[in-house]
Amino acid sequence: MLFEAQNALQAHTFRLIHIKHRPACEPTGATKPSS
Questions:
Q1: What's the whole-model pTM score?
Q2: Which domain of life, per UniProt (predicted)?
Q3: Which of 6, 14, 22, 33 sits CB 3.0–4.6 Å from 26 for a disulfide?
């Protein structure tokens, strides 16, 4: 369970970083429905 929580946190952090490095023309996760 702890491992799963860590995994989710890592994925979330990675997603945030990935979105930050995206071009401005691309929509952020806020406008898109999260999968």
A1: 0.42
A2: Bacteria
A3: 22
